[in-house]
Structures are given as structure tokens and as C-alpha cells.
Amino acid sequence: MRVHICAVGRLRAGPERALIEDYLTRFDRTGRALGLGPISVHEVEDKKGGGMEAEAALLERAAPAGALVAVMDERGDTMSSPEFADLLARWRDAGRQDVAFVIGGADGIAPGFKARADQAISFGAMVWPHMLVRVMLSEQLYRAASILANAPYHRV
Question: Nearest Cα to 27, choosing from 143, 110, 133, 134?
Fold first, then answer.
């Protein structure tokens, strides 16, 4: 199952980018044997200032046709890391070819886009900067692959 991170904004060089690249490399290495990956990042930017609706249109185009769409939203489902790993495994085992994790911009994701999503996932009730959500999602994807591979990275 190919994994896509579709996000508003361009990630510049710096500590967040280094962390994301490290976790995505680890995910690819661990996940491929499990039928997870490759992983790719699709960055979109609304240069015309159209707000959430314009960003939603760009995000929709960034996600592959037919992909399961999981939006990252503070009102989404919260789950443990093992539950997240199980969710990925269920999607994979159901024959999903692509899953797109969608991260909105500073104002979030347009309500209409959220309503059409297959899943909404939250990292808790707090609001996180969208660039940090990328870091946390990348780490949780690697952690999920590690859990599914019975690797020692995840400890209870």
C-alpha cells in the first residue's frame, strides 16, 4: 500500500525536515517488507490567497485517484500507536492501493473536504502547528511499521 502525505506548505531546511526525512527513510526500510510503502510527500501552496477552499482543491489534486483519504484534524479519532498500526494493516489487508494522509494549513482543512474524507485522525485535543504534525505523523508511521514488524522500537 503506497502512503502519501499531502500537506499545505513547503518544508524548508531545518530540524523538522531532518526529522521527517529520517522517519520516512526508516518507514520505507521497515514497511516495504510488510507491504507498506513507498511513501511520498506532496506539498501544495495556495499562492493566490484563496484560503481553506483553495487549499482543499490543491490537496484533493495531490491525493492519488481512489486513495483512502485520512485527514489530520484535532476533532478526529484519537488512538494509541498499536491501534494506528492495526488501522494501517486493515487498510492494507483490505486491498487499498493508496492512502493519503492530509495535513491542512494554518486554518485547518475546509469542512467540505473533511466531510468527504474516509477517516479523521487526531493527535489529541490540542492544536499543533501543521509542520509539527508532519513530524509526528512521520514518526507514527515509522512506529506503526515497527509494531507490525515486531521490531523493538515501540515499547509498551
Answer: 143
Say which residue the cell 487526531 belongs to: 122
The HSE-up count of residue 37 (CA atoms within 13 Å, CB side) is: 19
- The amino acid present at 130, given as its one-letter code, is H
Give the pLDDT of residue 27.
98
Choose which CATH entry (2.60.120.620, 3.40.50.720, 1.10.260.40, 3.40.1280.10) describes domain 2-148.
Answer: 3.40.1280.10
Burial of 65 (0-12, 13-18, 19+ CB in 10 A): exposed
Residues of the chain with pLDDT under 70: 156
Question: pTM of the full predicted structure?
Answer: 0.95
Residue 31: the pLDDT is 96
In the chain, where the domains are located: 2-148
At position 127, the amino acid (one-letter code) is: V
100 pairs with which residues across the strands?
4, 69
Q: Identify the pLDDT of residue 48.
A: 84
Q: What confidence score (pLDDT) does residue 130 get? A: 86
54 Cβ contact list (under 8 Å, min separation 6): 46, 48
